[in-house]
Design brief:
This protein has a two-stranded antiparallel ribbon with strand order 1-2. It has helices at residues 18-57, 78-99, 122-129, 142-147, 187-191, 223-245, and strands spanning 201-203, 208-209. Helix 1 crosses helix 6 and helix 2 packs across helix 6. The chain has 2 domains: 16-60 and 75-104 and 222-249, no CATH class; 112-212, no CATH class. The chain has 266 residues and is mainly alpha-helical. The model has no long low-confidence stretch (mean pLDDT 83). It is 39% helix and 2% strand.
Length: 266
């Protein structure tokens, strides 16, 4: 409360909480996503219009009617033709956009508390692998952002925050490489299993680790995969939009994760 007795008023130099700062950043990032999607929609409309004009100019459509001919049905107008093509073209544009780097990344895999957690034998192999998986970059979900436990990189929203000193996740204890937020760990961490990851193991069964810095071979996705990814991204963005719109600036208690038995300590 300020000196004049008004509630809800703060001094100009009052500190801003991390939760409040991140809420503002999430709003700005959502504005970026909405602007990006508006550009994609405009691009799809230009493509549809160009395709339709090309068909008509190439003589695929009938020649223009003589003067005085009654107007064609609305379905034959240029606007209607473009509108009819817009949805599939927009889906293709969004799928193409999903292939490239995005300014704002979101986890597309669903609720982290509903996935079946993996159970890698971290206690047995961590002295060999040194928790190398905790150096990988990945996107967080709206659930992670709402909980406010897992830190994200403000310069690369919403990728997991990593230490500059060694490249590990900021929640990884540098002394023993164990996860300090295991109960709240993101979905990617819950579902990941290192056994078949060539970046970590040459032969997991024989406990032969891969050399540091080894990368996985890139894999290509089919058009169907890209369409599915574009759809999943639109769902994730809609979830993030609803969460921000329904949030409040003042802190409020958040429900904790449902109780689950711990699987490993990574």
């Amino acid at each position: 409360m300020s000196d004049d007795g008004a509630f809800g008023t703060a001094d100009d130099d009052a500190p801003v909480s991390r939760r409040d700062l991140e809420r503002a950043l999430r709003h700005l990032n959502m504005s970026d996503l909405e602007l990006r999607d508006a550009v994609l929609q405009l691009g799809a409309r230009v493509v549809a219009l160009t395709d339709e004009l090309t068909r008509r100019l190439d003589g695929v459509e009938p020649e223009p009617a003589p003067p005085g001919t009654p107007a064609p049905p609305p379905a034959h107008t240029l606007e209607a033709a473009v509108g009819g093509q817009l949805e599939p073209i927009l889906a293709q544009v969004r799928a193409a956009d999903a292939q490239g780097p995005t300014a704002v990344s979101l986890d597309l895999g669903g609720d982290k508390y509903e996935v079946e957690p993996s159970a890698p034998p971290c206690d047995e192999v961590m002295h060999l692998c040194q928790a190398r998986c905790c150096t990988y970059s990945f996107a967080l979900s709206t659930r992670d952002l709402d909980e406010g436990v897992i830190r994200w990189d403000y310069g690369h929203p919403y990728l997991i925050r990593q230490r500059a000193s060694d490249g590990y996740c900021v929640h990884n204890d540098p002394a023993d490489h164990r996860c300090t937020v295991h109960v709240h760990r993101p979905r990617v961490c819950r579902s990941y299993d290192c056994k078949d990851d060539p970046r970590i193991w040459i032969d997991f069964a024989r406990r032969i680790p891969a050399p540091p810095g080894r990368r996985a071979e890139p894999t290509g996705g089919s058009d169907f995969d890209l369409m599915q990814r574009a759809h999943a991204r639109s769902v994730a963005v809609a979830t993030e939009r609803r969460s921000i719109a329904g949030g409040f600036a003042d802190p409020r208690p958040l429900p904790g994760p449902p109780p689950r038995p711990a699987n490993g300590t990574k």
